[in-house]
Amino acid sequence: MDNNKLITLENVFKTYQMGEVELPVLRGIFLNIEKGEFIAIMGPSGSGKSTLMNIIGFLDTLSDGAYFLEGEDVSRLDRDRLAEIRNQKVGFVFQFFNLLNRTNAVENVELPMLYGGIPWRTRRARALQLLQSVGLSGREYHYPSQLSGGEQQRVAIARALSNNPSIILADEPTGNLDSKSATEIMEIFRKLNNDGVTIILVTHEIDIAQYAKRRILLKDGTIQQDILPSTGHERRATSD
Can you give the pTM of this predicted structure? Predict the structure, then answer.
């Protein structure tokens, strides 16, 4: 077994049932992701980008195929076990931040740890440390309405890191930000990746995708291109 292999998708299909109509979204995805990669998933609207990310992050289930996480076939696990793995291994960052408005920054960051049963003193110390690491020293007790969009996204990143996940999934994380804030957020992702965190990013913006070390282009639910930009080498979109 390759100890560096993190995620393997084998011939993954996803079809939604809309009344009597079947809507195929993913049509036979083969994908290998190694620990420590920084990947941008791109493609036009309706190409399956967010569906693929939701399956990787256990927010949705596949219709057919197999999903291996660190060698374990997670496509056969029940909902409770998937939720447990998600809480332990995956952090999410979304376009609209998804912060609780009546909860200040440090309390927002503490939430995943609260659900994980971590004692208050431990989670407060970690939340404060994470907010400092994303450049929010002095803003820890501000509420979302008192923070800029870029600052809110920093809180969301700190929250995503609270349970020390091995994977960060970011769905259009700069979509609601101005260019300066977007650059600052992407620099945080770059630093996290340099520290060993695997980052999988969905974006339609070329300049944002350029931060990634690997770019995957989806179209009509299939992988059209899988490129390592630094080398120009294109990976095969089939299993090894």
Answer: 0.88
Does pLDDT of 1 surpass 80? Answer: no
In contact, 163 and 88? CB cutoff 8 Å: yes
CA 135 – CA 52 distance, rounded (Å): 31
User: In the 3-class helix/strand/coil scheme, how is 47-65 assigned residue by residue?
Assistant: CCHHHHHHHHCCCCCCCEE
Rg (CA), the chain: 18
> Measured between alpha carbons, how far is 2 from 34 in angstroms, rounded to an integer?
9
Give the Cα separation of 222 and 13 in Å (integer). Answer: 10
Q: Which residues contact 161 (CB under 8 A, 6 or more apart)?
A: 91, 130, 133, 168, 192, 197
Instruction: Write out the DSSP string of 195-238.
Output: TT-EEEEE-S-HHHHTTSSEEEEEETTEEEEEEETTTTEEPPSS
Average per-residue pLDDT in the chain? 89
* Residue 82 pLDDT: 86
Scored b (16 or more CB within 10 A) or e, 186-212 reads bebbeebbeeebbbbbbbbeeebbebb
Confidence tier at 234 by pLDDT (50, 70, 90): low
CA 230 to chain centre: 22
CA distance 221 to 171: 17
Tokens at 60, concatenated = 């949705």
Could you tell me if 55 and 62 are in contact, meaning their C-beta atoms sit under 8 angstroms apart? yes
CA angle 188, 189, 194 (to 5 degrees): 100
